[in-house]
From TrEMBL, chains A, D:
The keyword Methyltransferase does not apply. GO terms for molecular function: CoA-transferase activity. InterPro entries: 3-oxoacid_CoA-transf_B, CoA_trans_fam_I, NagB/RpiA_transferase-like. The lineage of its organism: Bacteria, Pseudomonadati, Pseudomonadota, Alphaproteobacteria, Sphingomonadales. The keyword Transferase applies. This is 3-oxoacid CoA-transferase subunit B. PANTHER family: KETOACID-COENZYME A TRANSFERASE, SUCCINYL-COA:3-KETOACID COENZYME A TRANSFERASE SUBUNIT B-RELATED. Keywords: Transferase. It comes from the Bacteria. Belongs to the 3-oxoacid CoA-transferase subunit B family.
From TrEMBL, chains B, C:
This is 3-oxoacid CoA-transferase subunit A. PANTHER family: ACETATE COA-TRANSFERASE SUBUNIT ALPHA, KETOACID-COENZYME A TRANSFERASE. GO terms for molecular function: CoA-transferase activity. Keywords: Transferase. NCBIfam families: pcaI_scoA_fam. It comes from the Bacteria. The keyword Transferase applies. Coiled coil: none annotated. Belongs to the 3-oxoacid CoA-transferase subunit A family. PROSITE patterns: COA_TRANSF_1. Signal peptide: none annotated.
């Protein structure tokens, strides 16, 4: 039984440690905020210059001047501060954000990430993704294990233009979790979704990875 | 006191517009964009603009208005989704685009405004963004050289401005506006409120008056929301 | 909430000090210097410090105290007048100094904190400061490459701080403090007042809490004035 | 009759035009502020992060947190704003300050300036002088025409280490004013102090300069 998107977000949320400053990408990564454990104090950063993101507003509280990087309306907390885009990316590029959770089109076994363009299709641009993967301490990717055509997204090498070279530390798919201790090491299989067999994961993965540690 | 306040946007832009010019604009998505000045530039009919702006607006709002009228020749941006007319012009080759990672774009605008000709960043190393650019090793890591950006004109939106051109932004509408203000050879700011001299606490000013040559009261403050997301009120 | 507030300076510095370390300090002259933390570092006896600081204090105040006890091995500064003990150690070769133009120093600290490995500036081109450094032409003008600075520890002084580490500085005591806060692997801030969570307007925060790992109430706020200049009250 | 320090400051003040942002160096240049013509609106900047400097405080108004770059106590105006040192030098380096008035030990006929160190003597450091001459639009030097030993300070070339190469636009000494229209042109003699003869200026100047325009 593969993990749902909420399961994947919940698994990613376990990687958010007390005191962390975290940037969550657009899409499934945004859901991670809903699964942060009670007692774990995490400050969410949004690259458009907001540090300390609160929940979505009620209808009455909507403020067009308070948005996150996904351009969604959002609220403040008692810790919130605003900075310019240059200062916001100073935090990101300078290594002050401990963790970022992003979506991906492809991840390569060497940690390369592709999530910003498909040649021949309309290119929307990298946004802040290249800055995040280059600057944030630890990068977790949330993605489906295979694409709509059934092709493995965790690959020997990326076929799509890169967002960053050797930048991914952990991959959470609907079937499995892959991780590596550092960026010189290969990924190993850390966990498998309930009732999914190791052979299925192996069959649907093009990348080389190490087996689950005993 | 030197008069920085202009009665309306056409007067504030008078003499500053010319075909083929470079315009830097503040704003992220549709948040904190200089709506009033964009409309006036549409009206002016100036063409061949190179626009430095994180985004390209939507079809009928923000810089999208200048795309619709084909007044923009080139965009320097990080993300241009949400705009069908943009897509059409880009795919047909009418519009040129220089993609720039968002943090690199913000830093390039800041650098241009601060007399920094170029800087080395890890962002984009090993990707298409770094192709054709110089790289350099620092402590064994590769960095790519990005250059400062300077615009003929910068247009920004602020919450409050005083007659000296001091600006205060509001919440996440700050975004690219302070950097845009610094990187214009001339900077025009539209503000939601003009306050009296001395109304600002000197520690609260985000963008000092030295960067703002002209100021006007914004008449367009629609502040359209792109992604209206809400939670249900707790019962 | 993660506990960032420490009861006193020795506790706030506990485990962070080691011989030969690099310490960045905020302040300009004697204005906005972390008096309480400097005293605690004197008490700690840590030696061989490389200090990144615009100035070197005076003989018996500011970083001058750490010079007197010979805990500093090297200074990276723009101006070190007003300090006789500094002069003596420097001329006798006991103390090393790396002079850096003031704006270049501020930018190097900002760059180090913002992941910018190096940047090109016109400042110092054609002078001793540029000797041995790479230069590069941009638009026909020569620029010199300066590198980002990162410190093992940054010590800063703020006016107000909240339990999240958000800081607000007061008037010209801001100076180098925001950049110092960003360039420390660990940053400790002493503040004149600790406020309740939520007491700050999010638009007024100068240095967001992400840069501050430890915070304490400053117990030394002498704020010595170097050049007491007054005008006669109008009759 | 050579100009006094106040005369020199007053002459420099005439170069401050309406709307200018100006940085005044330590020493005689500070006096320039006392001579700004009524009706000329000038904003003074201080590189330690203060824009819009007021006069010195009264005894009652002294505030240790309000100082200029000379570390002198100062006051605010209704236009004042504070920025960090990085942002302050962004203004300077980015060309947003129109004019700076500085002292000098030597100026060369090609516009080189030396004002920060004397080899063999204790070096205090460049402070913000190198940034100012590299970034500010127009640089005016105020200095005595000759040094204490009677040696010309406006020279063929500087003997002291430079603060900046080809950065001076105007020189005001106690005997004369030299100026040039741009940094590719030579200096010309623009004015002479009352009752000082051109021959005396010539004798006390090592630099080549053009005669006063008719």
């Amino acid at each position: 039984m593969p993990w749902t998107r909420d399961d994947m977000a919940a698994l990613a949320a376990q990687e958010l440690l007390d005191g962390f400053y975290v940037n969550l990408g657009i899409g499934i990564p945004t859901l991670v905020a809903n699964h942060i454990a009670p007692g774990v104090d995490v400050t969410l950063q949004s690259e458009n210059g907001m540090l300390g993101l609160g929940p979505f507003p009620t209808e009455a509280d909507i403020d067009a001047d308070i948005i996150n990087a996904g351009k969604q309306t959002i609220t403040e907390l008692d810790r919130t501060s605003y900075v310019s885009s240059a200062d916001s990316f100073g935090m990101i590029r300078g290594g002050h954000i401990q963790l970022s959770v992003l979506g991906a089109m492809e991840v390569a076994e060497n940690g390369d990430l592709a999530n910003w363009m498909v040649p021949g299709k309309m290119v929307k641009g990298p946004g802040g993704a290249m800055d995040l993967v280059a600057g944030v301490g630890r990068i977790i990717v949330l993605m489906d294990h295979v694409d709509k055509a059934g092709t493995a997204k965790f690959r020997k090498s990326c076929t799509l233009p890169l967002t960053g070279a050797n930048v991914v530390d952990m991959i959470i798919t609907n079937l499995a979790i892959f991780q590596r201790p550092d960026r010189r090491s290969p990924f190993f299989l850390k966990a498998i979704a309930p009732n999914v067999l190791p052979d299925e994961v192996r069959a649907k993965t093009e990348a080389h990875y190490l087996e689950m540690p005993a | 006191m030197v008069q920085k306040i202009y009665d309306n946007a056409p007067l504030a832009l008078d003499g500053l517009l010319f075909d083929g010019m470079v315009i830097a604009a503040g704003g992220f998505g549709l948040c904190g964009i200089p709506e009033t000045l964009i409309d006036a530039i549409v009206e002016s009919g100036v063409t061949g603009i190179t626009a430095i702006s994180n985004n390209a607006g939507v079809d009928d709002f923000g810089l999208g208005k200048l795309l619709k009228t084909r007044q923009i020749r080139k965009m320097i941006s990080s993300y241009v989704g949400e705009n069908k007319e943009f897509e059409r012009q880009y795919l047909s080759g009418e519009l040129e685009i220089e993609f720039c990672p968002q943090g690199t774009l913000a830093e390039r605008m800041r650098a241009g405004g601060a007399g920094i000709a170029g800087f080395y960043t890890r962002t984009g190393v090993g990707t298409m963004i770094a192709e054709g650019k110089e790289t350099k090793l620092f402590n064994g890591e590769t960095y790519v050289l990005e250059t400062g950006l300077v615009a003929d004109l910068a247009i920004v939106k602020a919450w409050k401005g005083d007659p000296y051109g001091n600006l205060i932004f509001r919440k996440s509408a700050r975004n690219f506006n302070p950097m845009a203000a610094t990187c214009g050879k001339v900077t025009v700011a539209e503000v939601e409120t003009i306050v009296e001299p001395g109304a600002f606490d000197p520690d609260h000013v985000h963008s000092p008056g030295v960067f703002v040559q002209r100021l006007l009261l914004a008449t367009h403050n629609e502040k359209r929301i792109e992604q209206r997301t809400i939670r249900q009120e707790a019962a």
